[in-house]
Amino acid sequence: MNATESPRSTWLLVIYVACAWTHITHAQPLRPIASNDELQRMQAYLNERNDPRIIEASIDLGNSEFVDCITATRQHGFDHPIVLEKPPEGLFNAVDKPTFDGPAEPAKQAYGSVTRTCPPNTIPRKHLTIEELSQFASLKEFHDKVGGRGRQFAPMVNGHRDYVVAMQNITATAANSILSINKPVDEHSEEFSLSQIWVSSAYGLANQETIEVGWQVARWRHNGSRDPYMFVYWSTDNYGNGCYDQDCPGFNMFPGAPYVPGVAFSNWSTVGGTQVYVSFQVHRTSTAWWIGVNGGGAIGYYLVSKFRTPGLASNFERMDFGGEVQPGMDYPTGTPPFRHSKIDMGSGMFSSGGWGQAAFHTAIRFGNVNASGTSISWNWAHLTQPPNSPTLPGCYDFTFADPPTNSAFYFGGGGYNGVTCILP
Fold first, then answer.
1. 257-282 pLDDT tens trace
2. What does 393-409 look like in DSSP terms, one character per residue?
3. Taking the domains of the chain in order of start, what are their residue ranges?
4. What pTM, to 2 d.p., does this model score?
């Protein structure tokens, strides 16, 4: 356990710029790319986020990561106080965990398991530095769901992502899945690999709204780390604008939250060994969309007033579960033809490996919260695969684990293998 004094913002921009250009530690080969004007905007953003008036303590998680303990009612800035919603009671332990087919354990983060937790009436938030921000071309790129476009050390297939998902069109106000935590291996720093839940309205339209929770390996976002990080994300305009975690006003954390978005998980599944799992739940009451993790109560919420009616202000119309990668591509000889990169989805194993090998989602359900917000009527999901999933079946694949119910599945793959996966 290692608690330290609160990190204080360095207020002189020139010092921050110098640090950003000379002290990128374990983040290589990432490099600062923000313009001077954008650096000034980033510094103004950090001055408010890291305001010493709202940081009551700081906790060292190891591996150059810190969590700041922020006054809960000032989590959007000293000059922007909020009144926290009252958390719903008894709605996060209503889904029973399945009987697994082998050794399994719940996911952990260093926060709260090997370190102390934040004091009462404060909320945990990942400490962010100018070193990390300056590796993005702009604040908007930092907030985008798919970032890293400004530093494509390996050429990218423009806008290309590979999906393996299962979905159900359903009008509901609650969704739940238990998914494996894996540590996929990437090939290039601008790639990412994730597993998550999506709930959305107006799917595929310009006004699509989405709330997402899951984990990702994304070196471009996490200062070079290859560990799986928990995230939450929301958008109200089909990803034109959006935001991760607590990086902009939107997601409100609760004091005492046992898990922190933006912080790495400290354990993950091993092929042929113990499988590590996490249960994510999203549900709506009259005032907010609540996020729960591993049945431990709400970690935070999005106000329904952030969304439209019809739309997520009322309910979701579609739920998706599965994995996604953004691959780079390689020119093995320095010139075309190019190949798909060797980036894992999930464990890197195809779905045929089953338990202990492939990544999974299981116990997938949907439901509706009653009018008083005191209970949820749960139903098993009956998922289908959309026509374009998997997008590249020779690279990544999918198998339902419980037909014909179709509320659990295995998925994954390793990207380029020279046989079934060659081109992106």
1. 999 999 999 999 999 999 999 999 99
2. TTT-EEEESSTTT---E
3. 91-113+151-412
4. 0.89
